[in-house]
Write a structure and sequence with these properties.
The protein is α+β, with helices and mostly antiparallel strands. It is 47% helix and 16% strand. It is built from 5 helices and 7 strands; from the N terminus they run αααββββββαβα. The strands form 3 sheets. A 3-stranded antiparallel beta sheet has the order 3-4-7, with helices on both faces. Strand 1 and strand 2 form a beta hairpin. The longest helix is centred in the N-terminal third of the chain and has 32 residues. The N terminus is likely disordered.
Length: 154
């Protein structure tokens, strides 16, 4: 039994390190994007962006990533999400999915297909600035506790 306890402690430590690394990556992305925030504010900001857009199917998958069979990638990994960001014709930031749910199955779209799909379906999120959209698209996964856990920390 002592060996099992040691492994559990090691697993907890690994999760803690992963959480810290994800948060640090998100903070670096936010800093590089020009979004001024503190660590706990970034988490709140990301959480609020998700909560305020729960009417979007791709955002619901962010909040509940295990509700659909993941897409198999060429590199032997799987995906339930892939985001891109850009600017709309009013200068606002836009985040849209490149992995979309079509008839209950995930499909990866090219950048242009994803733009066209988001315009047609309304599956996009608006942000006041391009920098905020870029920060969200690159750091939303930091909401998840670890790559293997089911629920994000909203």
């Amino acid at each position: 039994m002592p060996n099992l306890k040691k492994k559990m402690s090691l697993k907890s430590l690994e999760k803690s390190i992963m959480n810290d690394a994800k948060r640090q990556d998100a903070m670096q992305i936010a800093k590089e994007s020009g979004l001024k925030t503190r660590d706990n504010d970034l988490h709140s900001w990301l959480s609020n962006a998700v909560k305020n857009n729960m009417d979007k199917e791709f955002v619901q998958r962010i909040a509940n990533p295990n509700t659909i069979t993941p897409l198999d990638n060429e590199d032997k990994t799987t995906s339930t999400h892939s985001m891109a960001s850009g600017e709309d014709n009013k200068g606002r930031g836009v985040v849209y999915p490149e992995v979309v749910n079509i008839d209950g199955e995930l499909k990866r779209l090219s950048r242009q297909e994803a733009v066209d799909y988001s315009k047609k379906t309304g599956e996009y999120m608006l942000f006041p600035t391009v920098q905020e959209a870029e920060t969200f698209s690159k750091s939303y996964k930091s909401l998840w506790k670890s790559k293997t856990e089911e629920e994000p920390q909203l």
